[in-house]
Each structure stands twice: as C-alpha cells, then as structure tokens.
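I have been asked to look over a protein record a colleague put together. What it holds is a sequence and that sequence's fold in token form. Please read both lines and tell me whether the tokens look consistent with the sequence. I do not need a full report, just your reasoning and any doubts. This is what I was given:
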Amino acid sequence: MAELPSGLLEACVVVGAPSDKLRELPQHTKSSELPLLDPEVLQVHAPPFVSIEANSNHVIGPAFSRVQRRRSFIKKKRRDRAAEGVSNGDSSSRHEASPVPATEDISVPKDLDLIALPQLCFPDGLQLASEQKDDAYHFLVFTDLFGNRTHGVVVQYYRAVQSFQDSVFQNGHRWNAPKSRLFAPFAVCIISKFPYYNALKDCLSCLLVQLRTARQADLEETIREFSAKLSLVPLPPPGQLHVSFSLRPLQVVLPSRDDQDSPVVDLNLHLPLLCFTHTALLQVLSCLLQEQRIVFFSSDWARLTLVAESLLLYLQPLSWQQPYVPVLARGMLDFLMAPTAFLMGCHINHFEEIAAETEDLILVNVDDGFIQTSWSEAVDLPALPLAAAECFISRAESLQLQYDLELCHLGTGTDVNTLRSQRRGWQQKLNSQIQNIALELVVNIFRGVQDFLNHEHRVFNSEEFLRTREPDDQLFYRKVLETHIFHSFLRDRLNRKRDSFSRMEQMTQSHAHRNRAMTESPRRPPMSELSRAGPDRKLSKRLGASLPNLDQPINESVPLNANRLLSIRKISPDSGLKFLQKPLKVFRLPEFPPPLAYHYVQNYYSDMVASLGKAINATPPDESALLARYHYLRGLVNTVSNRRLDALEDFHSLYKTDAEIFPSQMVNSLIDSLPDVERVQADRRPEIKRLISRLKREQERERATQGTGQEDAAVKRFQLPKKYMHLEEFVKCVQESGIVKDQGTIHRLFDALTVGHQKQVGPDLFRVFYTIWKETEAEAQEVCLPASVLEHIDAAECVFKLSSSVKTSRGVGKIAMTQRRLFLLTDGRPGYVEVAQYRDLEEVRVSSAPFLVLRIPSLKIRVHGRKETFEANLKTETELWNLMIKEMWAGRSIADRHKDPQYMQQALTNALLMDAVVGSLQSSKAIYAASKLAYFDRMSLEAQMMVPSTTSETLKHKINPSVEFAVPQAVDVLLYTPGQLWVSVGGGKVMVYDASSWSLIQTCQVGNARLNCMLGVDRDQVWMGSEDCVIYIISLVSMVCNRQLTEHRAEVTGLALDNEKYCHKVAYSCSAEGTVMAWEVSTLQVKRHFRLSCDRLQSVYSCGGVLWCCARDGIMEVWRNGTLKQHINLPEQQRVTFSSALLITESEELWSVCVDSAEVYIWHIKNTSRPINRVMLQDCIGCYCMIQVKNQVWVGGMGRSSTKGKIYILDTERYEVLKELHGHIDKVTALCSAEDRYVLSGAAKHDGKVAIWKVEDRGLDSSKC
C-alpha cells in the first residue's frame, strides 16, 4: 500500500463528561455547589472516512459504504462494568457489552495520546455552569519520543444538559419554581501534523455555527461530517501557492511554507512584541538559546501556546530540542520538577506556588511582560551580544503593529471574507518583516561560525571561535556552545545546508569578508576594523559596493562611524534584508460533496484534478515555480484517489520543474505499491519509466552512502593530541585545528618540527606550537595603531607580526609586518616610518654591528630607489626575521608575476609558521627547521616559477576555486554570464564570482557528479549537463537548482542554443552515446531527438539550419531532423582523437583540435575532403578546448616542458600563432570569454586555478614568448 500524503486532519477528538455522569448529577444542585467532573474522550474521528468495500454478494448490498473510525470510551467502560457486575446468564448485560460494528474499537493515529488529551482539552478541569458561557479556544503541541510534533486546536463550548423544576410548599399549597438549567462544556480538538492555528480555529468557528442549531442526536454525525470534509483537504506545497476552501460562512486559507525546510507560519508573530518590551523579549530569547528551564504564565491558555510558538519561530533555523509542553493542565505540574531543560506553560494562578516550590526556573509572565527566576526577581544570565541586540531593537521599533492604523483610509467593509482577506494580507506582510528581523538577529549572533568548521573531519574549533567574540559576550557564547540547539545548528552548517541563515549571512556579508574568504590566510581583522571599533569592536556592516580595479589594493570604501551607528540611523524593518517576494497565488478547492459516499468523494477529487489542470494550462511556462506547485497538488490528489499512473506523471513534471520540493519518500512508496498490471503500463510510458529508473538510482546511491553516516555524524570539538603523531595523523590534526588546510604546507611543517628527530610529533611539542600560534594571533589582534599611523596603510591590512623594541637606523621602535609592507612603529609617541613594501625590496641579509668587544647580529634591508640601507639590531630575532622577510618578498614577487594573490597568502602563512616553529623548538636547529618552510624563497629561483614577459603582460589575475579544499580540484567547466563567472569543480560543486572584482559571491551544489558543460539560457537560467545524465537548470534569481531534465540516458556532454532570430528559442543537448535532443526552452519539452553513430559525442553547435557535432572519431554536419549531411575526418593513416571543434562563420571555416596531436586542423565547410590548413603548436602534446574571441582562436592544451598548461592564441586570418601563454602547471581543460574583453582559463587537478587574460586584437609573435 502506498504511503498516503498527510492531509489537514489527523484526527478530531470530542472530549467531555460522559452522559451517565451527567444523569447522575443530583437534581437540587446549586450553582455554587456545581461539581468538578473528570473529562473523558467521547469520540475519535480519524481518516479514512470513506472507503470502497467489495461485498461478498455482488448482487445485493451497496458497492460503496462509509466506515467511521472512532473509539467510544463510554461504551468500552460500560462493557467493562457490565462484564464485571452481572452473571453469565444476563442476556441484557451481554447485549450491552456486545460490540457494535459501526463503532468497533480500531486504531487511532499512533502519535495521539488519548490518555493525556482530556486534561489538556480542559486544563482547568471540567466545570459545569448554571448559565451559558462564551466559547473558548486554546492551542496544543504534542511531541513524541523522536521529537516529532503534532498540533491541536481546541474549542470549548457549552450545551444545556439538564433542566428541572423544584416544588415549593407554602401555606399548605404546592407550586413549581422557575425552571433551572445546567450547562456542561464539551471540547472539540482538531489534531494536525502542521501548525495551522488560525486556519483550524476558523474551521472550528464554522463547526460551532452548525452545532448550535443541531439536535442532540445529530451532534456526532455533524462532527463526523465536519472531520470527513477536513480530511479531504490537501496541504499546500512549499512555495508561493496557498490553498483555500469554503466551510460556510468562512473561506479558510492554508498558507504554504516558504521552502522545504521552513515551518508553517499561521499565527500572528507580533504577539510577543505586544506582550514584552524589546529588552524583555531579548532576555527571553537569550534564555531559550541557553536552554534554560523556562515556564510561561498567563491567564489565557491560548496566549501561552501562541507566544511560545512565535518565540521559537523567532529562532529559526535553530530548532528547540528540549521537552516542550506549552500548556500544562493543573494535574501535570509535577512535570516542572524535571531536571532537564524544558519550555512549558502554566496558568497564572500557579505562579506563586511554582515560584515558591521549585528552583532554577525562569518564570515568564506573559500577561505583564516581565521575566524573573524562581529564586530571585532578577535574571542573572548572560544577555545576547550587545551589537546584535541593538540592531534588533532598532529594526523592531520601526514596525507598525497596529492594524487599526491601516484602516484609517478604508471604508467600512460589508463582506466578512473580504475583511478577513485584508487583515490576512496585512498580517502576512508583518509576519514577513518580523521573520526578517529575527533572522537577522540570529545571523548577527552566529555570524562567522562557518569559518571555524572543518568539513572534512567534522570539527568545530570552539576556542578559536570564542576568541573572535567580544569579551563581554563570551560567557553567553560559552553557554550556548554547549546546547543541543547549537549542536543541531552546527550539524546543518557542516552538511552545507542551504537555509535562510546561510542565505542571509551571505547577503549581509561585508565585501571585504567575501574577498578574504577567497584566500586561505590566517585569521586577522584588518586594521580598519580594529581602528573603527577600538576595544568595543562591533559587527561588521554590510558593504554593497564592488571591489575596485584588480591593480589597486582592495579597500572597504564605505566609512563607518565608530560609535553607535545603528542607533542614529533611520532603519526600516527590512532594509537590507529583503528577499525577492514572489507573488502569492491561492488555489480554491471545489465545494465539498454533500453525501460522503465513495463515488461522491471520487467525483470531488476528479473536480479538483480538473481545476488544477485548468490552472496548469492557464499558467505561462515562464512561471515554472507556480507550475511545479500545481503539479505537486495534482500528484497528491491523484495519489489519494488511486490514480497512481497519473500521479507519477505529475510527479515527473514536478521533478523536471522544481526538484527542490519533490516528495521522494512518498513517490518511492507509490512506485513500490504499483500492481503488476500498472507496472507494465508504467514501463510503456517513457516519462514514468525514466522517473522510476532515476529514483532507483538515487536510492542505490543513498544506500551506498548511508554506511558513512556523514550527515548525521556528531560534531567534534577540536582537542589537542594526547599521543605521538605520524604524518597522516599530523595532517588531520593540523587541519582540524584550523591553522592551515593545504597538505603540501602541512607536510613541510611536519618536516620542520621533526628536524633531528624520528618522524613523529609529540603531544607536548604540538601543544607548545599551537599555543605560540594562538598567542601570536591574539597579540596581533591587540595591536591598536593611532590614527597618524593608520593613514599610511591600507584599510584591509593586518599587522601579523610585531618585533620587540629594537634600535634601528631610523630610530628605536618595533618592526611591524603586514601582508604588504614592513614599517617601524616608533617608541614614545607612536609614529610611522616605512621600511619597505615587499615588491620594492632589493636585498635582505644578515650582518653584524660592533658593540664594545661583541658583534651583535643585525638585519640589513635595501630598497629600490633608496640610497640608505635600513638596519635593525634584532639580536636573537635576526635570523627569523631574515627568513620571514625573504619568504614574503619571494611570495610577493611570484604573486605579481603570476597575478595570483593566493601566493602572497601562502607566503604569509609560511612566515607565521616559521615564527611558531622557532618559538616551539627553542634549539640551535630552530632556524634550520624553520627554513624548511621557506617554500617561495626556494621556488623563486626555479624555472617553473618564472613567467615569460608575454604571459605576464597578458595575464590579468588568478583566482583559486580550490581554496577550501585540502588539495586542488580540477576546473571542469567555465561559463560567463553578464556580471558573473561560473566555475565548476569536482563532484558538481559550482562557484559563482563577481566579474567586476572576481570575488566569490555564491557556492551551490549541482547534483553529485562531474559537470561536463554549462550554457546561459535567457537572462534568468543556466543549464548544466552532468555525468549523471541530467541537465540541471539554475535560476539566476534564486541561485537554486530546482529544475531538471532527465530524458538523456547517458552523460550529457554538450549544450548549445539555436541562434536563429525568427524562431522560438530552442536549446540542443547531446550525450556521450550519440543522442541529440532539441528542447523548447519555454516549455522544457523535447521537440525532437535522434541518435548519431559515433565514438563519444562531445559537443553540439547550431548554425545556419544545421548542427555541427564533434565526437572523438570525427566531426559531423547534421540536418536538424537528424539526417547526416557529412562526416569530416582525416585520412585513415592520420586518424586522431578529436577533443573540440569550432565553426568560424565569417570565413566559413571549421577548426578542430585533438588530445593526441599538436596540430590545429582547418577545413572549409564547403569542401571538407581535406584540411585547407594546419597550424603546428610548438611544445605541445595535445589540446582540450578552443574558443573564438574577436579575430583570434584561443586553444588550451598541454605542453612537454615543466609548465604543462599552455594557451595558444592563433590569428584566424593569417593562420599563425600570435602568443603562447604559460599560465598553469597542469593541462588547460576549460576556456570561456567575458564579453571579448577577457578570456578565462581553467586547469586540471594539479593546478586547479582560473586565470584571467586580457584580449588584444593582435599579439606578439610566439618567438618572443
């Protein structure tokens, strides 16, 4: 049986006093003496309410019947009492105890606790009344052992249960007093898996309209019919589509979740802002984050749950992990003695009692808006970080919380549903603003956590994270870091979960921080941040400007006030926080069927399917997100109505349109439930067959990875080693510590620490090394430079090393080392004396200065353009500074030559490691050991680090997509779209860079396999062909992969657009086994497809009504219908393996290159019998990619020399090599052009970098390279 999707209703439970108890009440009861009764479950209604039954006699009896699933505890108790109190011969008792088929005890939802439910429905007890009372609503949350929650909405209403007259005797006469009536409360509780509090409250309000006019005998049937209607309501999918239905007199709306991981929000999120001051509210949130034992109090039961739920939503995406009971009945107060953290709610009447009898509780009075502890009126807990709290308060103060102010300009409404719709729209807008403000608070509290995670080893370096927090905030963070809520949050970060937190953190990140994330460098705040904030450093603010020209230093160009900028700035509730608001649509369900017989319900489902079909046909193809939601809903409806194959077709359309909301578990269950006949029919439908095979492959992949348990693995805290470590263990330990990730650097560090010893590092040595590294880092952060010094250095510079006070040729002071220069910080009144920028150095050497009879070692530095030599008497530090400065000099020189800032960052890391090694070894061999880390100083003398002049002139910049990996990753594909560079590295990881600054702006995961090709389609999507046979479609707006094309049966190797002006936009794709498909871009439908006979089809290109297809064994010109026009190849004795082909339309030429040849072959497309020209590439063993830029062809290949990655620039008119560029140490695997101004090249795994080259119309002759 397929797993049916959850509907709105899980169960409907009626609770009250049993009728026999009410009949037993004494007739003369006074209103002041009304007893308190024990509530019991009277009815349980749970789906399915309608099912088909195959009658044993097909001629007689109905083929359809209604089967009510309910449990009557009253009848059960009667049976039990009757069985105990009568003899076996009492037939009437046996009749009373006999089962009634229509109400036979059957299973109720497994997560429903019917024992505790009566108390929760009447938390104050079931009290009779002598007069009619108002209906009262409250809300419940149930949590099972696994932490799964279900939600309940309860209404208490009163019905007259007894009326009587008292006889009065007076003066010997008897007369009757006026009739007296008793009213008993009953509770109807709707239970749902999702917190649709407002919607279910509306449903119960509609039910009470019917119950007030219903006869006593019809009550059960009325509630059953009501429950059955709610069970027919499907839940809306995540996204922009709501669902509404009519229950008369109200139109009820079910809002959808924002995305798959977001909770349903169907309550008024501003309630806590009405109950608490902003300071008190932040205090409550701080207690929740620290997982205290918290009790809410209110005189209104409904307020308890709504406020608690709102506060937990404020903390999203952090999720409360502890016991949670927002409503405690008075018989459950002993729950508050639990030793663990919890969040519970009680009536205000119990406040004094609980405060006096319990310890270590946080008591929150929701009615009066104050918070205290059970032992004191003050709360002695760490507050939220000050900067985050100030930002929250500033934004919250600008919220408009009063709906009446919105009504000032409106007339009086006459239609209740119109008025409700207006209020709902206002509330949704306010909820969105509050969610943004609360999310910003969470982001500001935990910003930067990602920087202290090691994903490979699943380690969080908590101590290093704490060092970056303000001293006044550290106690708060120490408490939070130990909580379950934070541990779950960390696990999501390690799993690279793309949720609201990660999106906002990236969106509000300062531009300088984004740029620093591109390079692996030791963590130091730039002096601009330290100087702005001084000792009270605040959060970095968002910086929206692009980085300047690459030739200039990277500065933050937006000045920020050192004082409380947020408090003096006018802030709107969502300034700087707005996500793209998608227009909301509401799908209205058909009217519910009057009699709930099977065939009427099937007709209802058919009407819903028809309505959804009309909505799908009326939705334009470019609204793919809305189309996906309609397909999702129709798939759900077809599933519950047993139209399994139709459901699978809808889910296939959903999978192609928005895989993010695809219900994999439900669809797999549906596939497994297919009968043999339907499975045969499914195999005959290509779309369904493809979906089934695709899901089976995914299941196999999941089973293969389940053994690792990586996603659910615990998050480890970094700990210093306790035993000796060999190289492999040492690499892991250093990576976990966050010092450095690069394995080559760690290997050199291992060699340095083991000089003169056996090849293992002891725990004591590593502890000393680690301590010195951290102390040096802390000392650098404590450097506070005066304004007179800061004006001489760049805003992004950091002081990484400060010498002791020494005598120099320019005065007495401390030598400071930044990533760009050396300068002297003079003693006394601090002053700035520039020593040198690394690129200007001419000579660095150790000398000795005479002092009495001794010679004191000193460091001499010569700078280009200066006559005098700078000399510093660094004494015992001389040799170390000599090593560090030479390494920085070499790193700067190589970085300038290669236009690669990563080299400078690596040199800086090497220099700081030298410092830590010398400090930890403290021996005569310390300097020799440190020299093992002088990597660039040695490499600067080697030929492979030398860059030819032509290469240096053409090379603009380099970026390193592999910076967060331990080893470089191959660049598989490059794509330029306006303003952005897309880089694909191994395993489907795609990085997006800002093309104005080449800074990283986005990272996304596209499948799990290598990508072979990328194509910009329209202005809002990028198509990516993968080894796993899928074409993934990325939205340029949301940067999310939510659509997939799964028609290919082999890896997708090429993508192309039809460039015809007067036809619908068509995209072509090809796969390795020779299949070519033409896609209608607007509908994502295959217009036609055909298969070519070839050896691994690699690319496709459309031009002039024909397709040009390149395979390893030749190039084919093919008509659009698949007919082969011509096959182009070399003579048999000269056969090669083609890798790329390029059509030069201006000259009607076809250019091609091969992986096993150093020649470029050129054909005229009208005569392809033999090449018209061949261009020999010097020092080349094979080529892999080729593009046209202006009147040039750029070819990426592999050379024989030490510099293996080569790019050849050819003139298309003269058929000669203009330039030969040496930009990579591994073969060039990808090329793309950026508006014909730049060419970008990517290399294989030994290099893993992207080079950016300037394009010129004509270049130098290759002989000058």
